[in-house]
Amino acid sequence: MNSDSDLQIAGDILEVPHLLQPPREHPATVSEFVGLARSIAVDRSQWEHLVQYDATSRWYHRLRTGPGYEVWLLSWVPGQGSGLHDHGRSSGVLTVLEGALTERTERDTRALGAGSQRVFAPGYIHEVVNDSLEPAVSLHVYYPGLTEMPMHSAQCAPAVVTA
After folding, report:
1. Of the four, 17, 61, 94, 120, which is 20 to 30 A from 32 by CA?
2. 43 or 155, which is more confident
3. Per-residue pLDDT tens over the stretch 102-114
4. CB neighbours (10 Å) of residue 141?
5. 60-94 burial by CB neighbour count: b if 16+ within 10 A, else e?
C-alpha cells in the first residue's frame, strides 16, 4: 500500500486543473483571489497581447473589475521600481507572470520569479523592483479596489535575497 497522500501525489492542487472546483464568477475569499490570479496567469491569451513596456515609467493596465475588486497588469523594465508604499485599505495578491522581481520590506528581501505569488493585507509596506536585466510582467489583484497608494520614506531590508 502506498503511504503517500493524494496531495503529495498530485503536488500543488492549483497546478492540476481537474482537481480545482469551478471558480466563482466573483471571488470573495483570499484563496479565491489567489485562484483568480493563478487562472489569469496561466491563460496568457487574457493578458499577453496587452503588455507594453515604457522606459520612462512602469506601464499598467486595468485588466478586470468586479464587485469590490480590481485586477491590474503591470510591466517593469530593468531598474524600474514602485518605491516604498502600502495599498491603503486594500488587500492584494501579487503574481509574477514573466521575468523576475524583487520585493523588499523592512524585515526581508525576496526574489520573485515567474509564478511566484505574494498575498498582503491592508497596511503592508513594501517596495517592488525589477533588479534583473530582463523585463518583467506582474498581475495585481486588489480588494477592495485600489483607491490610494501612500508612499513611505523608511528604509527597506538590505538586498539579501532569501528563498
Report:
1. 61
2. 43
3. 999 988 999 999 9
4. 28
5. eeebeeeeebbbbbbbbbeebebebbbbeebbbbb
